[in-house]
Inverse folding.
C-alpha cells in the first residue's frame, strides 16, 4: 500500500498518470465514506493535502477557488460574500458546519453526487473548471462537467485544479426544498441567477445531473405574472426525475414546477429594476 | 466532578474489550423467505471459525413470548436473518471472511403486509406457534394455528359476542358491537409504518464461558429475561448465566430480550474464548424495528356528543419473529380505546407475522400506533357533530371512579387537567377559531403484573449501595434510584451508589420497560429502607408486586395497576403547494405524580417529543421485496437540533402522589395533535409520516 | 506507514495502513474512546474531533490526512472547562453517547463567536449543532447550556 502526497499540481498529475488505479484524495469525505462502507478498497492513494496551490482563493475579475478550498472557507470568506453572494449562499447550505470543514469544491464537483447543492448554482453562475493532466490544461464549463450518475466528463488522468466564477451576478437565489429533517439532502434544489437581463435557472437533486434549459429561460418576462409559471411548468415537463426516500418522481415533478416559479418570482423585482434602469 | 457521560469517562457495552477475545460477524439472508440448502466455506481462511445453523439446531428455539427463533436460521424468514456466524482474532479478518461464505438458498413465498398476511393464499411465515413459558409470556397468549396470527387480543365489554377468530377485512356489525344507540358513526382506517430506534450506540455484547457458566456483558433493558432465555437455550439453570449490563448509549426498546447474545454465546462456546459481536448501523435496521400497524377505528356517539360505542381493529406487523409483539398488540388494543367512557367496546388486535425484519419494543409500546388512530377519530367525530374537539373530549373523559373498557376502576385520574393544560399552551379558543391547532389525550399502560426487588446495603463510611436490576439507558435510572434511596435514608444522593445491573448480584426485577422503573423501584426501596431500619441498619430487602392482568378472550381485568396519562397540543402551518408542514409549537402535558429529578424528567419529556416529531413528520422504514430501502442515517432521518425548536412541556404533579414513570408518556399524543392541527387546514391525514408528499395526497380537495 | 499525529497537545506515533480512518486510530490504537462510530458515513457527529480547532468527522477521515494538524478529542478538554461545566449544570445529556461531539462542536462555535465578539443565538447554536444527532433528544438543554456560556 502506497500513500503519495505530492507537493505541486504538476507532480500530482504526473502521479495520476503513472498510477491509474490509485485513488485521488481531496478533502477525503467521499473517499472516506466509500472506504468505510467497503465500497472502495484501494491499495494506493494520491493525497492532495500538501499541494498548496490547490488551497488558494483569489477574488479579482473572477473568483478563483483552488480545488482543495473547503466549503467552510468559501462560506466565511468576506471577498466571496461581497462579490459572489450566490457562491457563498450555496456552499453555506451544504449539510452542517462539520461536513463543510472537510468537503472541498473540487471534491463536490468530482464526486458528481446528484444531490449536491453547489453544482446547480455554479452552473447558474456560468462557472467553469480547470482540469489538468500531463497532456495540458482544459477549461470545462461546470455545465458540461457532470454527465451522469456520479460521472464527470473528466478523463481518468485529469485533476480539477481550480474553479472559476465570473463576476457580476449579484441577483441570485438558491432554494433547497427539504422534505424531512432540516439536515436532509434536498428533494429539489433550484439555483437561479440574473445577468445582463438574462436569467439562468438550474434544477438540482432531481436527476442524475443538474437540469438547465436556456431556451425556456429566454422566454422569461418578469413583468408578466404568468411567465414564471409557464417556464416552471416547462422545466417540470422536460425533466424525468428520480424517486427516493425524499419524494417520489411524481412529487418531484410537481415541486419542480413550484420551486422554479418561486425562484423566478424572487428575482423578478431585481429584473424589473434592471430593465427600468435600461441595463 | 462533572458527570462522567460528558467527558466520556465511562464505558458503554460497545467499548468493551476482553483479553483474548475474538470478533464475530454475521452472514445474513438476502431473501425475505428462503431455505438454506448449502453452505460453502471453501474460500474462508483456515484460522477463521464458522458456525452454521445445523450446529446450533440442537439448542432449540427461543422467543420471549412465542418460541419461534433459532440461534441461526436454517430457514430465513426475513432479509437480514442471521444464517451463519464467523469469528476471527481481529475484526477486519472476520468481516472479510463473512463476505467469503457462500450460502445457497431455495427461495420461498413471502408476504409483507399485515393484512395481506391474513388473506387467502398468504404463505405461512411459521408452520406452528409454540407459546413460550418464560417470564415475558406473562399473559394469556392466543396464537391461531394455521394462520399468521401469533396472538390475538380481544376486548369485549359485557354482553358483546366474541365474533370471528380473525379477519383482514372486517364487516362492521353494529348490533354485535353495541352501536344501536349511536346516532352518528365515524369509521376510518389509519396506518403507522415501521420505524427504527436508532439508538446512537449500536448493539454490542461480549460473551464468554467460565467453568461451565455463561457470562454476557451487553446492553439490555431486560437482564433477567435475557438470563432466562439464554439459560434455557444452553440447558443451564438460571443461576449459571450471568448478565452484566453497563449503561447503554440509548436503547428505546431496541436492546431487549435476545439480540446478539445467543449467537455470541454459541460462538464463544465453540471457540472456548470470549467473543464480541457488535453490529454496524446498517445491521441495526434488520435487527429490530417498531411495529408497523394498520388500525381501524369505528366510533359511535349521540348527536349531543356522548360516546356510545367504539370498535377497534389493529393489525400489528410483527415481522418474521414475534418477539414481544403479542404484548405490543395487547397494549395497542386497549390504548386505542382511549381515556373515555363508552357503553360498549369491542377490540380485536392481531399480532401478525410477515417476512419483514422483526418488530419489538419501541418507546410507546403500541400506544403510538393506536392513539394516532383513536385521537384522529375523536376529531373526525367532533367535526361531524359540529362540537369543539376539546369540548367533545371533556364530555367523555374518564374521571376518578369511572370504569375503563377492561372493567377496572380508574383512580388518580387527571386527563381533564392535562387536556386543559395542552389546550392552553396553544391558546385554544373554546368554540372559536382554532385553525392550525390540534389536541390529543391518551392513556398508556404500565407492565402489569410485574415485580421489583431491591437490596440495600450499608458499605461503610456513611455510604450505601443499592442493588437494583434497573438498566440505565440514558433515562437517569441510577440517578433517580440513588436520589429516592437517599431521601428515604436521610443522606445525600452522592452517598448512595447504584452499580449497573449484574444478575449475579442484584435481585429480580421484571425489566426496564414500560416506564415502570422509577415507580416500582421507588416502592421497593421504601420497603427495603423499612426493612433495613427494622433489622439493625446494615441490610434491607424490598419486594413489590403489582398485580393484575386481563382475560385473554374478553380483555376484562386489570390492564395496568397504574396508568401513564398524557395530552399534547400542536400549532402548525402548511405550505399548500409543497405540503411542507411547519410546527409553530408542540406542547406535551404528562402526569408525573411526584417528580424525583426535575431535569431528568424534563429530558424524558423532551426526548419523547423529539422522537414523536420524527415519527410524525419523516420517520418511515420502506421495504422493497422485504429489503429495507436505505438502511443508513442519510436515507433514514431522525430529528436534528433544527427540527424541534418549538417544544414545551408540563409535568403535572399532585401533592402526596406516587411517582409516575415518564419515559414514554409524551410520545403517543404528539402525532395526533399534529395530525388534528393539520386536519383543520383542509386535509384528512390517516397515514404517517406526514411528509410533504403525503400531506398533499390527503388534501380534501385533491383532484 | 508511520504517522506522526498531534493529539491533545502531545505528539504520538502510530504505524497504520493508509486506508485506516482517524477514528480507529484514536479508539483502537490510542485508547481514546470518547469519539464513537454510530453511522459510518460522517453524518451523526458522534465521531467528532477537532482538527485545528474545527470539528470534523473522524470516522471518514483517512488517518494520514490528520497529520500536520492538531487533533483535540474530548479527553483533551479539562473537567473545569466552561462548556463541560455548563452541560453538567443544565443536565444537558441523557445516555451521553453524542455528548463529546456536542461539547467539541460547541467549543469550536464559542471560540469563533469570542473572536468575533458576539453571542450566538439559539438558532445559530442549533445550526452549528445540526450535524450532531442526539436520539435521546437533549437538544433543548444542550442549546440552553451553550447559550449560557456564549452570553
Amino acid at each position: 500500500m502506497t500513500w503519495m502526497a505530492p507537493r505541486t499540481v504538476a507532480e500530482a498529475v504526473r502521479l495520476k498518470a503513472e498510477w491509474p488505479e490509485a485513488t485521488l484524495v481531496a478533502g477525503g469525505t467521499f473517499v472516506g465514506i466509500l472506504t468505510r462502507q467497503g465500497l472502495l478498497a484501494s491499495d494506493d492513494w494520491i493525497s492532495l493535502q500538501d499541494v498548496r496551490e490547490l488551497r488558494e482563493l483569489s477574488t479579482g475579475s473572477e473568483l478563483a477557488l483552488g480545488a482543495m478550498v473547503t466549503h467552510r472557507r468559501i462560506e466565511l470568506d468576506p471577498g466571496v460574500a461581497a462579490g459572489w453572494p450566490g457562491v457563498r449562499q450555496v456552499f453555506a447550505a451544504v449539510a452542517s458546519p462539520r461536513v463543510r470543514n472537510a468537503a472541498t469544491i473540487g471534491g463536490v464537483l468530482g464526486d458528481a453526487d446528484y444531490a449536491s447543492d453547489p453544482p446547480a448554482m455554479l452552473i447558474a453562475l456560468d462557472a467553469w473548471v480547470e482540469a489538468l493532466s500531463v497532456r495540458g490544461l482544459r477549461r470545462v464549463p461546470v455545465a458540461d462537467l457532470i454527465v451522469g450518475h456520479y460521472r464527470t466528463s473528466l478523463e481518468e488522468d485529469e485533476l480539477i485544479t481550480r474553479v472559476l466564477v465570473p463576476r457580476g451576478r449579484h441577483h441570485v437565489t438558491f432554494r433547497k426544498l427539504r422534505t424531512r429533517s432540516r439536515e436532509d439532502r434536498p428533494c429539489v434544489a433550484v439555483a437561479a441567477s440574473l445577468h445582463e437581463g438574462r436569467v439562468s435557472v438550474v434544477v438540482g437533486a432531481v436527476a442524475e445531473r443538474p437540469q438547465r434549459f436556456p431556451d425556456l429561460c429566454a422566454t422569461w418576462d418578469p413583468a408578466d405574472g404568468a411567465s414564471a409559471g409557464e417556464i416552471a411548468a416547462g422545466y417540470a415537463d422536460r425533466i424525468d426525475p428520480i424517486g427516493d426516500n425524499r419524494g417520489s418522481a411524481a412529487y418531484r415533478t410537481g415541486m419542480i414546477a413550484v420551486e422554479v416559479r418561486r425562484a423566478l418570482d424572487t428575482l423578478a423585482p431585481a429584473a424589473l429594476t434592471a430593465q427600468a434602469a435600461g441595463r | 466532578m462533572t458527570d462522567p457521560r460528558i467527558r466520556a469517562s465511562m464505558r458503554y457495552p460497545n467499548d468493551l474489550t476482553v483479553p483474548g477475545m475474538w470478533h464475530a460477524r454475521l452472514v445474513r439472508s438476502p431473501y425475505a423467505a428462503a431455505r438454506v440448502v448449502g453452505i460453502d466455506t471453501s474460500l474462508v481462511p483456515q484460522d477463521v471459525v464458522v458456525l452454521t445453523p445445523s450446529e446450533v439446531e440442537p439448542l432449540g428455539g427461543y422467543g420471549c413470548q412465542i418460541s419461534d427463533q433459532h440461534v441461526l436460521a436454517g430457514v430465513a424468514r426475513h432479509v437480514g436473518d442471521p444464517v451463519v456466524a464467523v469469528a476471527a482474532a481481529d475484526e477486519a479478518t472476520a468481516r472479510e471472511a463473512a463476505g467469503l461464505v457462500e450460502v445457497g438458498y431455495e427461495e420461498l413465498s413471502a408476504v409483507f403486509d399485515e393484512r395481506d398476511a391474513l388473506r387467502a393464499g398468504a404463505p405461512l411465515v411459521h408452520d406452528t406457534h409454540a407459546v413460550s413459558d418464560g417470564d415475558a409470556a406473562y399473559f394469556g397468549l392466543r396464537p391461531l394455528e394455521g394462520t399468521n396470527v401469533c396472538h390475538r387480543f380481544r376486548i369485549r365489554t359485557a354482553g358483546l359476542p366474541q365474533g370471528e377468530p380473525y379477519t383482514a377485512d372486517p364487516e362492521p356489525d353494529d348490533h354485535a358491537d353495541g352501536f344501536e344507540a349511536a346516532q352518528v358513526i365515524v369509521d376510518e382506517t389509519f396506518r403507522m409504518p415501521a420505524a427504527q430506534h436508532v439508538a446512537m450506540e449500536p448493539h454490542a455484547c461480549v460473551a464468554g464461558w467460565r467453568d461451565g457458566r455463561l457470562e454476557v456483558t451487553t446492553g439490555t433493558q431486560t437482564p433477567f429475561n435475557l438470563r432466562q432465555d439464554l439459560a434455557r437455550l444452553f440447558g443451564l439453570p438460571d443461576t449459571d448465566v450471568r448478565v452484566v449490563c453497563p449503561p447503554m448509549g440509548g436503547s428505546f426498546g431496541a436492546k431487549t430480550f435476545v439480540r446478539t447474545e445467543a449467537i455470541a454465546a454459541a460462538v464463544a462456546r465453540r471457540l472456548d474464548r470470549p467473543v464480541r459481536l457488535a453490529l454496524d448501523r446498517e445491521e441495526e435496521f434488520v435487527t429490530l424495528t417498531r411495529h408497523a400497524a394498520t388500525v381501524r377505528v369505528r366510533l359511535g356517539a349521540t348527536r349531543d356528543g356522548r360516546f356510545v360505542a367504539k370498535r377497534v381493529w389493529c393489525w400489528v406487523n410483527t415481522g418474521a419473529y414475534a418477539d414481544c409483539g403479542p404484548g405490543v398488540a395487547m397494549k395497542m388494543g386497549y390504548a386505542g380505546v382511549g381515556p373515555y367512557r363508552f357503553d360498549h367496546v369491542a377490540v380485536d388486535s392481531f399480532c401478525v407475522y410477515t417476512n419483514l425484519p422483526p418488530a419489538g419494543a419501541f418507546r410507546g409500546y403500541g400506544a403510538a400506533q393506536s392513539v394516532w388512530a383513536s385521537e384522529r377519530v375523536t376529531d373526525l367525530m367532533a367535526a361531524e357533530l359540529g362540537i369543539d374537539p376539546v369540548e367533545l373530549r371533556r364530555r367523555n373523559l374518564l374521571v376518578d371512579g369511572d370504569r375503563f373498557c377492561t372493567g377496572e376502576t380508574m383512580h388518580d385520574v387527571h386527563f381533564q387537567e392535562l387536556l386543559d393544560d395542552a389546550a392552553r399552551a396553544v391558546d385554544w379558543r373554546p368554540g372559536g377559531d382554532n385553525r392550525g391547532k390540534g389536541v390529543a389525550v391518551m392513556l398508556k399502560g404500565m407492565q402489569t403484573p410485574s415485580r421489583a426487588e431491591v437490596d440495600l446495603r450499608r458499605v461503610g463510611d456513611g455510604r450505601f449501595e443499592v442493588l437494583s436490576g434497573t438498566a440505565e439507558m440514558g433515562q437517569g435510572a441510577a440517578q433517580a434510584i440513588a436520589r429516592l434511596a437517599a431521601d428515604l435514608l436521610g443522606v445525600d444522593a452522592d452517598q448512595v451508589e447504584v452499580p449497573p445491573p449484574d444478575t449475579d448480584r442484584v435481585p429480580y426485577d421484571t425489566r426496564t420497560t414500560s416506564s415502570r422503573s422509577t415507580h416500582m423501584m421507588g416502592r421497593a426501596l421504601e420497603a427495603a429502607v423499612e426493612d433495613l431500619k427494622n433489622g439493625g441498619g446494615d441490610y434491607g430487602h424490598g419486594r413489590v408486586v403489582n398485580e393484575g392482568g386481563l382475560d385473554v378472550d374478553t380483555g376484562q381485568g386489570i390492564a395496568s395497576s397504574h396508568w401513564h396519562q398524557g395530552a399534547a397540543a400542536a400549532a402548525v402551518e402548511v405550505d399548500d403547494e409543497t405540503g411542507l408542514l411547519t410546527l409553530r409549537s408542540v406542547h406535551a402535558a404528562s402526569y408525573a405524580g411526584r417528580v424525583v429529578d426535575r431535569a431528568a424528567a424534563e429530558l424524558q419529556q423532551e426526548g419523547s417529543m423529539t422522537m414523536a416529531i420524527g415519527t410524525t413528520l419523516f420517520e418511515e422504514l420502506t421495504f422493497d421485496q422485504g429489503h429495507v430501502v436505505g438502511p443508513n442515517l442519510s436515507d433514514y432521518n431522525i430529528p436534528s437540533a433544527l427540527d424541534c425548536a418549538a417544544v414545551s412541556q408540563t409535568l403535572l404533579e399532585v401533592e402526596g402522589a406516587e411517582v409516575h414513570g415518564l419515559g414514554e408518556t409524551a410520545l403517543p399524543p404528539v402525532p395526533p395533535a399534529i395530525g388534528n392541527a393539520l386536519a383543520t387546514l383542509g386535509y384528512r391525514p390517516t397515514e404517517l409520516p406526514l411528509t410533504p408528499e403525503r400531506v398533499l395526497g390527503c388534501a380534501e380537495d385533491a383532484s | 506507514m508511520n504517522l506522526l499525529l498531534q493529539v491533545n497537545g502531545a505528539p504520538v506515533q502510530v504505524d497504520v495502513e493508509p486506508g485506516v480512518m482517524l477514528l480507529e486510530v484514536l479508539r483502537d490504537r490510542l485508547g481514546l474512546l470518547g469519539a464513537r462510530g454510530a453511522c459510518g458515513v460522517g453524518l451523526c457527529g458522534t465521531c467528532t474531533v477537532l482538527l485545528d480547532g474545527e470539528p470534523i468527522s473522524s470516522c471518514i477521515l483517512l488517518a494520514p490526512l490528520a497529520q500536520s494538524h492538531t487533533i483535540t478529542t474530548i479527553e483533551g478538554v479539562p473537567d473545569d472547562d466552561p462548556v463541560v461545566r455548563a452541560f453538567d449544570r443544565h443536565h444537558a445529556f441523557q445516555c451521553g453517547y453524542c455528548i463529546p461531539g456536542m461539547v467539541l462542536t460547541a467549543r469550536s462555535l464559542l471560540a469563533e463567536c469570542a473572536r468575533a465578539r458576539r453571542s450566538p443565538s439559539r438558532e445559530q447554536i442549533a445550526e452549528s449543532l445540526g450535524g450532531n444527532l442526539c436520539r435521546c433528544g437533549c437538544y433543548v438543554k444542550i442549546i440552553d447550556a451553550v447559550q449560557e456560556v456564549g452570553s
